[in-house]
């Protein structure tokens, strides 16, 4: 299944690692665009309407959770999952409360991506 996916992370290297891991997980036919912070991701998401957003939590200008809140406040229901270096219980609760699909903590594996993403594709 080909999807349009937006990867948002302020680290270019981390965006490349996320994309490489998605490819290793078998999602090699996805069209992937990149945003370097939450504000850019919001603008791209509203303009391009991706099928899925994978977002870091901590980013300049707008954090990942602020991105999710801004999308929902504007009536967007684009699915969003977090790929972040932190995965505390409080963060997971907040992500769930705001409607995030999942939170994958770094370091992640192709299997972790498949475990989080495959149920969404079924």
Automatic annotation (TrEMBL):
GO terms for biological process: phosphorelay signal transduction system. Keywords: Phosphoprotein, Two-component regulatory system. The modification 4-aspartylphosphate is found at residue 56. Transmembrane segments: none annotated. SMART domains: REC (SM00448). It comes from the Bacteria. InterPro entries: Bact_response_regulator (IPR050595), CheY-like_superfamily (IPR011006), Sig_transdc_resp-reg_receiver (IPR001789). Residues 4-121 form the Response regulatory domain. This is Two-component system chemotaxis response regulator CheY. It comes from Flavimobilis soli. The lineage of its organism: Bacteria, Bacillati, Actinomycetota, Actinomycetes, Micrococcales.
């Amino acid at each position: 299944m080909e999807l349009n996916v937006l990867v948002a992370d302020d680290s270019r290297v981390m965006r490349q690692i996320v994309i490489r891991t998605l490819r290793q997980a078998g999602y090699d036919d996805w069209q992937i665009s990149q945003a370097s912070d939450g504000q850019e991701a919001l603008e791209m998401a509203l303009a391009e309407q991706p099928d899925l957003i994978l977002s870091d939590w901590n980013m300049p200008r707008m954090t990942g959770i602020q991105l999710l809140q801004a999308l929902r406040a504007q009536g967007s229901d684009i699915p969003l999952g977090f790929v972040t270096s932190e995965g505390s219980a409080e963060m997971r609760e907040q992500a769930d409360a705001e409607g995030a699909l999942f939170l994958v903590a770094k370091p992640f594996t192709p299997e972790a991506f498949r475990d989080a993403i495959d149920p969404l594709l079924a």
